[in-house]
Amino acid sequence: MNKRKLNFWEIWNMSFGFLGIQFGFALQNANTSRIFETLGAQVDELAVFWLAAPITGLVVQPVIGYFSDRTWHTKLGRRRPYFLVGAILSSIALCMMPNSSTLWVAIGTLWIMDSSINISMEPFRAFVGDNLPESQRTQGFAMQSFFIGLGAVVGSALPYIFTNWLGISNTAAEGVIPDSVKWSFYIGALVFLLAVMWTVFNSKEYTPEELEAFTDHKAEYDVQLTGKEDESRIAKLIKAGTMMSVFGIILNTILIYLSLDKELYIVSVGILSIGILFLTAALVRKSKGINGFVTIMTDLLYMPTTMKQLALVQFFSWFALFAMWIYTTQAVTSYIYGATDPTSQAYNDGADWVTVLFAVYNAVAALVAFLLPVIAKLVGRKMTHLVSLVLGGLGLLSITIFTTPEMLVISMIGVGIAWASILSLPYAMLARALPPKKMGYYMGVFNFFIVIPQIVAASILGFLLNTFFENETVYALIIGGISMVISGFLTVFVSDKATIEINE
Question: Any idea which fold 8-218+303-493 has?
Fold first, then answer.
């Protein structure tokens, strides 16, 4: 048996929840730095204050994926329970964020909000792999890209709309979030919940028995290992854990000796921590056998080849995106508007214009999303992704050339093309190489290569700007543009073949 092809509206319904998810992400990305600055954060602290959320994501994403692979609810299915729970938690956090009384409350709320959004978002990728045959997966991920773009257009532009169309104030007293931002987050919470509920109650999932009957689900991936094979996997865990632990210790020692910025310890301590987790998994596997923790850690070492190749592409493209999200407000307000005071009219006008720019690139992404499957059929997914990423990198670099707010719209066109491709083509290439029974887990692990570059960006960008560029934030966008061009050319080395590698 093969999975049946879904019609346009069935794919529409199963993807509609991403409208709300990206509504929430857009508000977070466009306004978090603004909220942090309003509550007293300094420019060189912004990146590190973003870190609580992605560090949590490293744990949340694979765990949610692992458990969603093993979930079945008679009414809500496998992935939809996570959509619904994540949406409820995210909506609560969105209402809390603009009412943060102090900087630390805002940082904690960002942590909760980002984690909750990921609970909803992570299983959506596996949802496409579960429900669509290979021939429709590019279309399915492209539909998600469309809703991501559409949701982000409105979500990003809401503060500007409230200020310029409805007359709601975009300024407030020192330490107070403007009303235009508050109302944007309230609307975002409502849209998030309603959009996800639409998908939950208007889409279906195959039962475990039905999935077992499909041709692309036939192979047995939970193979029984011989004692020798099990020892080999334990040895691989020990080797990886030892190497990462030693490297982490050396890196921490160097940072302490040179008395470098504390933000850099996030990377070095992270490497050491992962090494310790690998060693712990080896000990548990040797003494008690295989459990959920051991499986999660072991499967990290047995990622499919295509996934490893795409990891590098994802790292450099998402590093560029986080540089843009963290520093665009500061770069535009200082470089274009000549303002650095968060209470000034010029600063808030510039910050509002950034939300419009973010809406522009998301609108471009929504429109381009439907063209990508067509172009990919003509020239291949790899070439389509390469060209899209290079255009995005050039868009970021062009921000340093333009001198008026209106001209920055041109920059966002390139970014929008890249954004549409980043949200769809890597997942389409990946899905065909994943073991179906571990689709949710590996999609969660794939999000590591979204989170890790965010951690790296947050760790080193502030240090680089402070050390080499006198805190001129426009240089963060230059670094991001170069990074995105590199990611484009790394796509050449990705294997886009329907080869599923069997592992434990």
Answer: Growth Hormone; Chain: A; (1.20.1250)
